[in-house]
Amino acid sequence: MGRIKWIVSATLLAVLILGGCGPKPTAEPTPLPTPTSMPVPTVPLATGADEPGYCQAEPLPDLPSSGLPITIADDDWSTGASADDAILTIIEYSDFQCPACASTTYYIDAIVKTTPGIRLIFRHLPLESLHDKAFLAAEAAEAAGAQGKFWEMHTLLFDHAIEGYIALQNGQETTEWIALSPEEATAEFARFAQELGLDVERFSSDLEKGTYREKVDADFEAFSTLELSYATPTIIVGINDVYFQPNLSSYDELVHFLAVAKMMQGDLTFFDVPPEMTVTEAQTYQATLKTTQGDIVLEISGALAPVHVNSFIFLAQQQWYDDSEFFYVMDDFVALTGDPSNTSYGYPGYYCDGEKQSAFSEAGTVGALPNGQFFITLGADAADLAGQFTQIGRVVEGMDVLDKLARVMPRDPSAPKPDVLQSIQIIEK
User: How far apart are the C-alpha atoms of 191 and 208, rounded to whole Å?
Assistant: First the structure.
């Protein structure tokens, strides 16, 4: 699925390579500029592309029919989608003192918080041979969990670990718990418990008595039955109750697995073959996009790129675009939509290529991606897309609606709720 596992080259999705040990970035997501009023432009239609277009089926990947011997227990720590609503389950075996785990958690948490349908199960894998306070930190999380604050303690432990590792990476001393003695770290964890409003006396007693050591041991023993390498973090993915360790190049690909899971479970229409060619270069269409901010009217021209226009018209008429979020919207660049899985990785079962053009420098240009998604340019920065994508039309009404769309980036928990493309009405002119 290499051809469809990308969006727009400039979307800058958060990516963390597996096995990396770098700490969480200190910078918050760059705030997007305040939207400015955009008048309805007079966008010239491009001349037809010289490169011929084509569409090709892109089958779903073969996933394991049997997997790892994993059972989700009632006392597993779970967040995100409920067991009934989860389409994909992530099991994260992790170590609070592991720098790569701290980095990984930042990105996985963002994915879970911003992507419906993902359930996260956290399990302990403290590697004491590498991290002298790993078991103690795991017990602290369990002791907090016994008082209803597991995830809050989980966040505090990792946040402070990150701060400590950043300081060490910069050659600075740190007083964070990762650099303390076990006795000093125990006192620091009690301070965390007080910050969270816990019964500190009970919390400290649980740590002193090792009340939850058995629970942490149980997670460690469960991992040993999987016959996997002892490495943290270890990420396991579950689809249709089959659990396996995917070969991922980045954590953002977890979201790709969600799109695949949705299609495999029938939650997203999937076409085994590309549509028959019915559009000619002489045909033009009016496409009215019904959105949560109002209507946007497009002129779609077969003369621009008949193959891509044919695909767009087919998908719109099949209602494939209905309820797709505008999941990437940046001022002076583009508004991107057309993925009903709302993961940014959904696709209709085929991709289309060729017919690339250079006419993206003006606001209001409609461009198509190979994976069925489409975008509308919002300004001059879209000129960077020249020669990479295919123009299929232009906006004739509704640039003020584009101005109102929430400015969002995928997997950014601080972003507002995306606006939605509710439906598309097609009329042949």
Answer: 15
Residue type, 380: A
Contact predicate 401/295, CB 8 Å: yes
Q: How far apart are CA 267 and CA 320, in angstroms?
A: 11
308 pLDDT above the threshold of 60: yes
**154-178: average pLDDT:** 93
How many CB atoms neighbour CB 17 within 10 A?
A: 12
Kindly state the helix (H) or strand (E) to which residue 428 belongs, with its residue range.
strand 420-428
Answering whether pTM is above 0.90, one says no
Distance between CA atoms of residues 294 and 403, nearest Å: 11
CA 364 – CA 243 distance, rounded (Å)? 45
Q: Are 257 and 343 in contact (CB under 8 A)?
A: no
Cα 394 to the center of its chain, rounded Å: 29
**Assigned token pair, 389:** 């994508």
What pLDDT, on the 0 to 100 scale, is given for residue 410?
83
Tokens of residue 349, six digits: 């079962």
d(C-alpha 30, C-alpha 28), whole Å: 6
**Number of separate helices (H) and strands (E) present in the chain:** 9, 16
Please tell me the distance from the alpha carbon of residue 408 to that of residue 387, in angstroms, as a whole number: 25
- The answer to whether the beta carbons of residues 401 and 294 sit under 8 Å apart is yes
* 85, two tokens: 């609503």
3-state secondary structure of 108: helix
233 backbone φψ class: left, alpha, beta (φ>0; ψ -120 to 50): beta
Q: Which residues contact 276 (CB under 8 A, 6 or more apart)?
A: none
pLDDT digits (tens, 9 = 90+) for 30-60: 222 222 333 334 444 555 556 789 999 988 8
User: Looking at this protein, which amino acid is placed at residue 218?
Assistant: A
Q: Which residue has the higher pLDDT, 4 or 379?
A: 379
* One-letter identity of residue 236: I
Which residue type does 367 have? G
Q: Confidence class of residue 98 from pLDDT cuts 50, 70 and 90?
A: very high
Q: What is the 3-state secondary structure (H, E, C) of 275-318?
A: CCCCCCCCCEEEEEEEECCEEEEEEEECCCCHHHHHHHHHHHHC
Closest CA to 118 of 91, 89, 92, 93: 89
- Give the end-to-end CA distance of the chain in Å, rounded to a whole number: 36
What is the Cα 79 distance to its own chain's centre? 16
Cα 381 to Cα 378, 384, 401: the distances in Å are: 8, 6, 19
| In contact, 262 and 342? CB cutoff 8 Å | no
Q: Please list the residues that pair with 298 across neighbouring strands.
A: 287, 395
